[in-house]
Amino acid sequence: MSSPREREAAEYIKKHEIVDLMDNLTSMLFFYRPDRPRKFLIDQLEKLKISKDHQGNTPCLLNVSNLDALFGILDPSNQGCITYGQYKEVLKTIGIKNFSAFPDGASENKISQETFIREVTNSL
Fold it and tell me: Is-above-0.70 flag for pTM?
């Protein structure tokens, strides 16, 4: 059984999504491999603070060109859409837990590239 202090710490970590934050920052470090990692982390945290204060774009490992490429992999025949199942699976695979369960096109089982990019960006 854990102590009250351990439970309090676990609740704090969960409430403030510390594990997700650290996972994201670590992933960004490995992806970008900056020469000055501490400065890079400080910059990312400052960008995050600004985005939270002004409802702007949060620092993210995936940008629009990455999402375009990912969509292209899911749509190799260039139909301009992916299935709802593909949409759900890829979001789970890239670690997005909270996403729209019914994005535009879900009822037709056709998620457009525009919808895919918007939903992933909003969910990140």
Answer: no
